[in-house]
Amino acid sequence: MKNSSMNLEYLSLTKYITSSNCMQLEQLFDNLLWDVKQVAKYLKCSVGHIYNLKTRQKIPYRKKQGKLRFIPSEIINWIEEGESTDGKIY
Predict the structure, then answer these.
(1) What pLDDT score does 81 carry?
(2) 33-90: what fold?
(3) pTM flag (> 0.85)
(4) Which of 20, 32, 39, 71 is surrounded by the fewest CB atoms within 10 Å?
């Protein structure tokens, strides 16, 4: 009984990850994280400037598996707060 219950749970979770809606899920996750180019486009500056801000610890960012990622809400808050992270790296 427990095994069939687990199978049913698994099937209900995986029904959302099908080939038909896989692209929609990817687009959702693209909106949750930005890469360097997306931040530069949003801020209307060069990619190099974003890397300089990151190096000087002036912009909030995440680094996972060697990839630099930014959370849009943190970038917006950073702008509203006067572009200072007080040396914090997220």
Answers:
(1) 87
(2) Multidrug-efflux Transporter Regulator; Chain: A; Domain 2 (1.10.1660)
(3) no
(4) 20
